[in-house]
Structure prediction request, 195 residues.
Amino acid sequence: MSAQNENIVWHPNKVTGEDRARVLGQRGLVVWFTGLSGSGKSTIAVEVEKRLTDAGRAAYLLDGDNIRHGINSDLGFSDEDRNENIRRIGEIAALFRDAGIITLVSFISPFRRMRRFARERAGEGNFIEVYVSTDFETCRQRDPKGLYQKDIKNFTGKDSSYEAPENPEIVLDTVGHDPAECAEIVYQKIMEYLA
Prediction:
């Protein structure tokens, strides 16, 4: 996080987040899915996005792999690049939230400090952290993208650390629970926040 340039001045707007919420009939929210590769984050987030859309809610999924094809395509997997990856997506998610969108974010996001940053950017009461706590061995056996079989430097959970959330709003263990069950838990929590 760099210091603000003193030559850049915030330009005021006449439309507030509350105005946008009124137009959409909902307030924005950031739902942040974190966990190891293969834990089920994206699978569950896809299900939640579908449920929200079917219920007439404006929702959008920002998926870590998909974002790395575009805005974060210049980043590698060093700790510094991972932090920048999360800084950028935290800022984008905050903008989506301000626009009144229920923003689902599915990123490994291995470091607590950066997840706290994303929470702060979303604002008090506008962030739900979902820890998909599937253990390393189960993720390795699933290996839906074939990543665990490759010799990848700085692979999270293997030779790069993952700091589990300390106080997430939701903890999901996908061992013995299918994605639909997990998605329903998240969907219900979102509905509580929006009530």
